[in-house]
Amino acid sequence: MAKIKHNNFIDTVDEVLSGAKEEGILHLYAEDHFLTGRTIQIKGKEMFHFGTTGYLGLEQDFRLKEAAIAAIQNYGTQFPLSKSYISHPLYNELEQKIGLMYGIPPIITKNSTLGHLAVIPTLIRDEDAVIMDHQVHWSVQNACQLLKLRGIPVEMIRHSNLEMLENKIKQLTSRCNRIWYMADGVYSMFGDYAPISELLALTQKYPRLNLYFDDVHGMSWKGKNGTGFVFDAIKELPENCIVVSTLSKTFGASGATVFCRNQKLRDKIKNFGGPLTFSAQLEPASVAAAIASADIHLSPEIELRQKDLADKISCFNQLLAQGNLPIISKNDSPVFFLGMGTPVTAYNFVQRLFKEGFFLNLGIYPAVPIKNTGIRITLSSHNQQQDISALAEAMEFHFPKALEETNNSENKIRQAFGIDSRKADKITESKEQELFIEEKNTIQDIEKSEWDEYMGKQNIFDWDGMAYLEKTFSRHPDPTNQWDFYYYTVKDNKDNIILMTFFTYGLWKDDMLATESVSIHLEEIRKINPLYLTSKVLSMGSLFTEGKHCFINQQHPLVEKALKLLLDKVEEKYNALNADMLVLRDFDEGNNYNKTILDQGYFKIDMPESCEVQSQIWNSNEEFANGLSPRSRKHFNKEIEPYEKYYDVKIKDKLSKSEIERAYQLYGNVKDNNYAINTFRYTQEVFENMNDSQNWEFILLALKTEIENPFVGIMFCYKNNTHTYVPELIGMDYEWAKKYQLYRQLLFQTIKRASALQFQKIDFGVSASFEKRKLGARVIPKVAYVQARDNYAMELMNTLQNDYKSIAK
């Protein structure tokens, strides 16, 4: 299989978060000598604190502080022993009081992350299966990774998509004993709720379905005795439901709690629940603070605290309702999310609010999709009414200013989040009428000489090449081979072209750039469901082309404005098409527009490396070899040149009907054996149209030793005027590939043909860069920029890649 450099999800996350850190928004330090909860000091400035998750403010309650201090005096800073042996003196009292709160005995863990690691591998049996909401907390997803090592199916659905959940349940019911759906009670970014009643109804419809909730953000501010959102919704814990809650965040102490109705299961988790058995227990100070908090939760005071916070939430909602800010998921939770759309707008807004004296949290990828960047605002009992009113006023004032300064609009944000859908902003020219953008839907409407001057020297997308692509893929009856074409030109008011490019719209496989093992697994599923894990993508260039898909006049003084105008226009098209993903490719790794593109709501991923040969005219194999490095020359003399004698090499402009069928068969061999870049199989019509075009030719290799056999290898080559020779596709008979070094010979014969035709360069495509480098190719790192409606497909691919890496180890 051809090898490529696969994108690392962690690298993408690191780049996004590093950008936010450079803007002075993440990885900050509080500088206070004394914390009150109402304010926080950062970089010498005191700000009102609207970023806490201690919603009831109990972490500053004097009773919790005094209890913690007394516990340290009486029992020390820690009790360094596993709970399996003995718990320190305060543990029993805490367990009794938590049991009174919930009416059911708890399991207490060091924190919720360790709680999930203790419970999930013990709870889930080898004959079970798991379905995760793709926005369920990372700690749950991380614990589920351990299940995959045991061969337990772990599936993922889009956020709160009950139709998708039911389909997964139906698929798993016949082969699994129990199916566990894992979700948050209150989601930490948008503050939206799990659809509890609908999920309970599904458990009645499907008896194998069980529910597992992480309700750490629903704790204390909701429910009788502050038992949380989930318990408030379900009233009494059923046998088929597990709830993980917390003693930190709103509870004001440290630790987490696990609740299950089954006594036998509860004992099993306590007896062998990983971190419960082998990790240290909570410190005495934490347990003492939790006991003091439990006393508050068991008293009428908790209702007064809940009402006080509810009044503040209601006040903030009323203030926001007077304006028109795009608040996501309006409800009565203390978590609010103000949509910003692009990171640069969010950076601008946060910095403005910092200056006004308000600390807010940034919500950015991967916590939310990159185009769903926004501001998370959390209310707590520490916030006073005048603070809340001042914040609402500051938000209304600075929101439009942040949009204006970052080339954004409220309409774009609402479209990105799918709220209050309105007609898109019309984008035809810049406000100053300095720039104009044209959109065409066919190359026939673009002057050939103009297109070829700016775009025509690249790959197969000169004017004739685009005509071939349109003939082949436009209005194709097969949806996997059907593309729409969009051509964009940006000009200044003197009709000078600043930018020119083209986009295609069609179906992509979500695993196109995943590792081979993932694609092999998914292709088995696609034998039954051909469109499984596919997305509608609006992409610069096409799946048939690679290289510089965008001409940019870097010397023009308005070049950056021109690029932003293009990004606005294609985003408008992306929304009109309701595509799942928007992709800009293939930019050089060190391009000048990285920040401009990232600021408009894209994240960057590594693409497969591109290979290019600057063609030189040579007249003999020896002359070619002398132009290689000593190491490559040795490779050529040993593994390529000696095998040339075994082949009859023919160059054909036209193939017979039987030859086209044979060529398509050989192409299929390669397609079925190479998942490095997993795209849909092209139909035979693609190759028949090559045969009808004067720009295509075919390099055929037949074995001299097998006279009766047809050709065993073929390279499908495009001739781009006299500029670029493009070996676009390859076909091979694998019976002979290894013995006669067929692949390497096809590469060499391609270089030889380009030299004979005196082409300036060869676009050698992507994948197998190691082999191509040996023949003198220059390897060029490439990147793409991506927007997506949600993170579901990308997170799922990352999860699957991690699965197969673990299995391989």
From TrEMBL:
InterPro entries: Aminotransferase_I/II_large, AON_synthase_class-II, BioF2-like_GNAT_dom. It comes from the Bacteria. Residues 47-386 form the Aminotransferase class I/classII large domain. The keyword Hydrolase does not apply. Keywords: Transferase. Residues 631-773 form the BioF2-like acetyltransferase domain. PANTHER family: CLASS II AMINOTRANSFERASE/8-AMINO-7-OXONONANOATE SYNTHASE, LD36009P. This is GNAT family N-acetyltransferase. The lineage of its organism: Bacteria, Pseudomonadati, Bacteroidota, Flavobacteriia, Flavobacteriales.
